[in-house]
Design brief:
Layout lengths: L12 E6 L5 E6 L3 E8 L2 E8 H6 L7
Antiparallel strand pairs: 1-2, 3-4
């Protein structure tokens, strides 16, 4: 399973750390994914959603 948001499709990013001597170290910034139960047409499913989609209200949780 890929680390990707099921709603917006957000994936990991490549970014660079710079030291004091200006050397570059490339690393990956992972997406903050949460496993959430949703109600999809009467059935309860578990999907991985990023926290920005949860805060924006794009996901309605199952109770």
């Amino acid at each position: 399973m890929a680390k990707e948001c099921a709603i917006c499709g957000k994936t990991k990013l490549k970014s660079a750390k710079r030291s004091f001597s200006n050397k570059q170290h490339v690393h990956r910034q992972e997406v903050n994914l949460q496993s959430v139960k949703i109600n999809d047409n009467g059935t309860v499913k578990r999907i991985d959603v990023c926290t920005s989609c949860i805060r924006a209200g794009k996901v309605h949780r199952a109770v």
